[in-house]
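Hi there. Long-time user, first ticket. I'm pasting a complex I've been working with (about 816 residues overall). I'd like to know whether the download I got is complete or cut off, because the file seemed smaller than I expected. Thanks.
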Amino acid sequence: MIAVDAPRLLGRIRELGAVGRDDENRLTRLAASDADKQGRDLLVGWLRQAGLDVAIDRVGNIFGIWQSPENAGQAPLLIGSHIDTVIDAGIYDGCYGVLAGLEVIETLKASGFSPSRPIAVAAFTNEEGVRYTPDMMGSLVHAGGIGVGTVLAAVGTDGSVLGQELARIGYAGDEEPGFLRPHAYLELHIEQGPVLEREGVPIGAVENLQGISWQRVTIDGVANHAGTTPMSMRSDAGHAAARVITFLRDRAKGSNAPTVATVGSIRFEPNAINVIPSRAVFTIDLRDPDERRLRVEEAALASYLGQLAAAENVTVSVERLARFEPVLFDIRIVERIEAAAKKRGLGARRMTSGAGHDAQMMARIAPAAMIFVPSAGGISHNPREHTEDAELVAGANILLDVVTQLAG
Amino acid sequence: MIAVDAPRLLGRIRELGAVGRDDENRLTRLAASDADKQGRDLLVGWLRQAGLDVAIDRVGNIFGIWQSPENAGQAPLLIGSHIDTVIDAGIYDGCYGVLAGLEVIETLKASGFSPSRPIAVAAFTNEEGVRYTPDMMGSLVHAGGIGVGTVLAAVGTDGSVLGQELARIGYAGDEEPGFLRPHAYLELHIEQGPVLEREGVPIGAVENLQGISWQRVTIDGVANHAGTTPMSMRSDAGHAAARVITFLRDRAKGSNAPTVATVGSIRFEPNAINVIPSRAVFTIDLRDPDERRLRVEEAALASYLGQLAAAENVTVSVERLARFEPVLFDIRIVERIEAAAKKRGLGARRMTSGAGHDAQMMARIAPAAMIFVPSAGGISHNPREHTEDAELVAGANILLDVVTQLAG
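Hi, the file is complete. Here it is re-exported in full:
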């Protein structure tokens, strides 16, 4: 059984993770920044060293393509992820998937493997969405979900324009986005959650990606003196907001479903110690891998808000901020991942991705699936993001096995 | 039965209420500001017109004293309140009590009444505490609760020093604070709460003032991804805070006691839609007129926070921000207020003051009580603060009757 070159893979993860450090050693490579250019240059150098054809499209997506005269007419098998980061990031999110893709191709080349179709590795632009909106931008453009002109005109949090920045750093390529139509898409990623670590399972066979419902709720009551207003005469927007938070928690925790509900941000007005809040504004993040169940949860929330308005003498308004349907990955690829893990004597579990990934965009145009490896403490988007070397290597070998099958 | 001069009283309330308006007609007379000087000058002019001796103490408290050679040796009966305001204030809070005190004295003088002791009206400095801390400052100094040197050195929200500002506006007086030791103290005030209006009762005989317990609670959990962290593995500081809010509400509402509990301000960290809050910081305002019961409520809260920390896997720390014991007013004066209302055919109810007033400081050094009149909608500290003219006049006549008895 062939295996990836562990020192080469781990060394590259660390080398790329050293690019974009500030004076305090914090890692930040925002899309199309100078640090991103350095990271891209390093990656492209490795792609060329590996003898791959390098192609850059107009939105800056980078492709390293291994093809031969014999298979050049076939749709390629694509392995991808991203190398942009959040602010003060860890070194694994995204980069692991791209570098493992390269590693798999190099390993297969060196082994004398003769693929039936091209195998390519992609680094998609601006997956994190920190500097420019929307996130998962490069893969979304590739999948035809948004026009390239629109995103090139995107204005960043620093006032920059993406198209100008890509040109400045030398990554405004010539290829039309979507030029590479994959036969299938694979993405290897750290879990960014605690499940694999908690259960002691090294491989996640990701079968779907949660649907997301983001809402902003505004509750209006009446500001009144905290000392002079009897409890029975209050119209307390803050208290009503607290009821919603406990309702969501009790409902999600009491169910057997994988629904998760989070109130992550809140604001009271006037926000004074001795004034009953006249207004509470808070966000609700509801996720479920099943669209039908996500709708049931949204309806239950709406119904509760209606009852609350009457019971607490407040008015409630809801603004929808974002809504994504769940993504179903390709069951045949998921089964191949499980089988590959079994063959290597590694435990695997089917799981849902709670975070968004480029794979969800690519699933629109090709059979796709993801492989997860454990994240220590479930921590991500943070310098403490960590996965053990052996776990990283194990994940890359599963990717190797699945790629071998799909391109065999 | 004699009665106050209603047009004179109402006219002065409106005239004083016109002083300190900005371009948008918002009323703001912060302590020792130029607007406060204008208000003080107007008041002092009226005191002199009424033939009263005007005295100013070192903290700027203004006294208008009606005394005769016959009663000058007796401890005076003092009527007081304040004429400083909050930002964007109504015209009644404080001013009504001071101007009604003056009105009562003028009415008694004109009626040929010969008091057995001097009668004085006081306007205490910085009751609102908006510009300088602490609030109820002038009466606190008068009652010996804080040194005059300390408060004159107080630095305001605008960087000003109170002592310098009082000198600048001409109200750094010569009298030592506390020079006037009252026989008894009366304060007439708008309720600033909804009870009298709701019950259709024109006169409140205020028998006590709530004890106040202010605490700031900090709950620490663990920030995690809202999508990838199962409900069972969360340590959600925001949810724990919501539990405290609903606990306080359910406990206060389910009890027959007059306890009130308010969470008026809150903050989550990192306060992002898709991140489980690692920290929630919020304030708790607990009030009860009975010290024993207030302690029971504080203990119940502390016990709940302990349980919550264990159940929700969070840490809880509590900081005490302020603690005032309840104030008991003089029952004999309260009974006189009730009797006076009855005699004029006005309904009265005993009640608790939920807000702080100068009377609570004066109760430390003399028998004291307060008279309340209704506040429309319970609204105060707001331009919509309103009491009907007839209600204002009725309250002043009750003050007149009680003063007549106490100085008869």
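A couple of notes from our side: Chain A has a mean pLDDT of 96. Residues 266 and 282 of chain A are 4 Å apart (CA to CA).
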